[in-house]
Amino acid sequence: MRFALGAYLLIFFAYLLGPLLIMSISALNSKSFPSASPWECLTFEWFAVLAQDERILNGIKNSFIIGIGTVILSVSMGMAGSLVLTQVWPRLRSTYYTIIIAPILVPGVVLGISTLVFWDRVNRFFGLGNDSVFSDGLFLTIMGQSTFIASYCMLVFVARLQRFDPGLTEAALDLGASHVQAFRKIMLPFLRPAIASAAVLAFLASFENYNTTTFTFGQYPTLTIELAQKVRYGINPSISALAFLIVALTIFAALVNEAFRRRREIRSDKDLTAAAQKPSLLPGFLRGNIPAIVLVLFSFGVITVFYTAQTYSPEICKAEVKAEKKIETDRKIKEIQEKLKAQQKSKKQEQENIKASKKKSGGAFGSVFAPSNLEETTGTTSEPETKAPAKKKNNAFGNVFAPTNLEETTGTTE
Amino acid sequence: MKKPALFSEFYKRNGTVLGTSLLLLVGFWVVVLIILPQLSMLDFSFRPNLPPPEMGGPKDVYTLANYKHLIFGAQGAEGTYNVVDLSVFVRTIIAAILVTILDLILCYPLAYYLGQSKGGGKLRILIVLLIIPYWINEILRAFAFRIIFGESGLINEMMLLVGLIDNPFDFIRQDIALFAGLGYAYILLMIFPMYNVIESLDRNQIEAARDMGASWVRIHRRIVIPHAKPGIASGCTMVFMLSAGALAAPQILGGPSSLWFTQIIYQWFNEGGNWPQGSAYAIVLLLTCIIIVLAIMRLFKVNMGDIGK
Description:
The structure holds 2 protein chains of 2 kinds.
Chain A: H1 2-28, H2 45-51, H3 54-87, H4 90-105, H5 108-125, H6 137-161, H7 166-174, H8 179-208, H9 213-216, H10 223-232, H11 238-268, H12 272-277, H13 290-311, H14 315-354, H15 361-381, H16 390-413
Chain B: H1 2-14, H2 16-45, H3 65-72, H4 83-116, H5 121-131, H6 138-149, H7 154-162, H8 176-185, H9 187-199, H10 203-211, H11 216-244, H12 248-253, H13 261-271, H14 275-300
Helix pairs in contact in B: 1-2, 2-14, 3-14, 4-8, 4-9, 4-11, 6-8, 9-11, 10-11, 11-14, 13-14
């Protein structure tokens, strides 16, 4: 039973984390098509390619603008929605809740389409052209994304509001505070953690949204849209490099978050004194804080990788791989040549047997013909920009090539 | 006159400034962002595809042509059904149900394990590990699966190396990559609702059942699953809706011959330029999803209020 559980957990997390790991590895492989195997050379060139990609950089900029707009709009709408939910007429309550929770369940594609269609109609209603605010990609995307992201925010606020004591606001009002004052001094401070987590959630959701954005982005493609287009039409590992960065950032953020959590826990722990009495080589903030230790190690690792990237050059290794490939192709060419010769010989013999009266000059012609053709194949295969499965394809290609060659030569001899 | 009374009480509780801003924000969200766009999409789906100058003109009348197109195909071919679109539609729904079942089977044991473990550092680590993949872009997740399942991807390379197969196996054409990618994309949405309800299950109940000799299967069937039903329904609903409405994963991982229904909608909008047609298809997708979800809820006897907990 224990063993089965262990195996299950292992498989589950391999499924969950394996793809990310493999993608990260492929960012460091020098092959021009993203793959983790066969491994060629450790390289950091894809990061350089990524840094020079105008479209990706522009996409990141647009994503940030849209993200900030969405955060502001959806956090405030979500907060208002949750506050109204606490005091809405009971009989209306479930209908209201259904309406504001529905955008989470509605397919993102449908949200994108309805946003597009609706604002297009508003635009026409006011008789505005295609360059008005209502047909602007940024505006449409913020509207479309906020529709459902506000629901996420609302859920975060509802969870927090369940622990709110309405007596506090009433007390403030009794003591003569205005409603706005009571809201600012009591409700907002109480909701602050929820606002923070809703904002982070909203930003992440906005940043990675594809389904809705793909209908509304107009002239302002976000990072996700650019990535999708790159993935669909022509890939190189600079996407893996971006994924690598995002994975590293995510792990970093998660570790920082955990380290702070643990620290707060330790602080509130009464056993702190007991732990402190143990002699330890670690500085204070790391004591008993495993996430913090991992965080320091992780940062150290990242810095090391960064310095290696500054000094390391994959050229030697690349040259070696190229040479290896050349040897491989040369070997295969030789094989093919030998095969060809053997076949030619046997063919010649046959021909001599059958058509003894014919002259042998055709055979010589054929053998001249063959090498030049072969050189062409070597020319294509030994190019540095060989595609991923070059090694295998080359073999098949060469084999295919050879018989036709032969046929041609035999054709001339006849 | 109940409504004015309702509003005046609302204003009394919140004050004029605050009350008005709350109402404005909620009103904007509910009316302008949720209800009106859906209605205008519904309206749009009943109209013919006209160039902008002719909109609102005499030709702009309500028609069922867009829905007929889904069922019967183009107008020239009366009588025969639109086999291509309909089969894509059915396949999408079935595939989404399969993905949901796959995720349910995959996630239930883990949700149970997490919910029943006593907390502490190990649980935190597992939860962080669960969440990390979801901070990474949807497109990149699909892309990762392409690296793994591609023709010269990791699995093919490995199998060729070991000698298991002679030629690369086309995972993408067989839709294996698509199922793996879709299942992967929504694991978290399945686990967390289930984990939340199982966590609230009193462990004594399970122990009592075990003491009285209930088998492992029976404990789950009679105690854990009935208790976890809202979580299961909530998780299934979300996974089903999201995978039926997925666009990125089918675009990246789908084979050339297997379209997803959302891709057809996308084509009507971005390549076909026929918005009313696309709207009609979107409405069909939305309604079908809603009907299936309501059926699931009725089947499990779960309320809408349980969703999203």
